[in-house]
Amino acid sequence: MSDKLRKLLLFGLFLLFLNVCKAVKINSITVPQRYEIKDDTEPLIFNCDFTVSDADTGFVLKWLHNNIAIYQWIPSKHPFGLGHFKGRVDLNYTLPTNDRLKKHSALVITKPLLTDSGNYTCSVQTFQGADRKTDEIQIIDPEDSIDLSYQFEADGMVKLKCSVYNIYPVPEVDFLLDNKELNSANDKDVQQDTELFNITVTTVLNKTEIVDDSPMTCVVKIPNTDYIKQEHKIYDDPNKPAATKTSILGLTKLEQSDAASNENNAEGIRLSSTAMFSSLLLVVATFARF
């Protein structure tokens, strides 16, 4: 074979390779970063946008969860669910499009479970080529409550404690003091009740490090998501000097006493004046008879 013929053959194979690569292309997939399970849980929807050549044949679309097929659709057939997603996928969901190859391309999970966290892959195949894209989602069951407290230790230390009840997955729990993250080491206790977790985190500070009326904050975060919750409390030092109590008018107790005394004296003067005036009228009336 001549060099010229060999070069033409290689060039032809290269063009064929480019055509095959361009035959199927997934442009993007839409996978929410997180999904919260609630009492009125809505379906979880994933979308897959792709481009397929008009000349392509043998189209098959699949969705995979952690590399295991859970949904498949061939345009000439009805879509179906696979594995533990069978019965939890809306097989009648259609996209508002005129593109027949995208009618059932979305994955709709009607009853999301905590175990549905992980990687989701959209796979598109034809006889001429294939492509796939993957993204990750975290399923979250929000906490029932967050409890932040502190207590004074005998050695002059202050123990901060934050408890998070019935949450999934295990969150990161940190403390803020005066809106600044504490660098002290935290002790973390994790207990699991069925699928949910109870977490208690404690840290110890020297009392001298805390200014009275300082804001304390417990920050709860789910890693790799934008989920964040906070609980706040104001530090109250029981050994702080007692503040002078004032009345609504802003008077001290002594000032209130003086004011009351002055008011009583004034009232006495008014009563005395009234009595004297009455006596004077009585004398005038007596002389008038004569």
Automatic annotation (TrEMBL):
Residues 1-23 form the signal peptide. The keyword Signal applies. Pfam families: C2-set_2. InterPro entries: CD80_C2-set, Ig-like_dom, Ig-like_dom_sf, Ig-like_fold. PANTHER family: BEAT PROTEIN, GH04238P-RELATED. Keywords: Disulfide bond, Signal. Residues 42-138 form the Ig-like domain. The keyword tRNA processing does not apply. Gene3D superfamilies: Immunoglobulins. This is CLUMA_CG017577, isoform A. It comes from Clunio marinus.
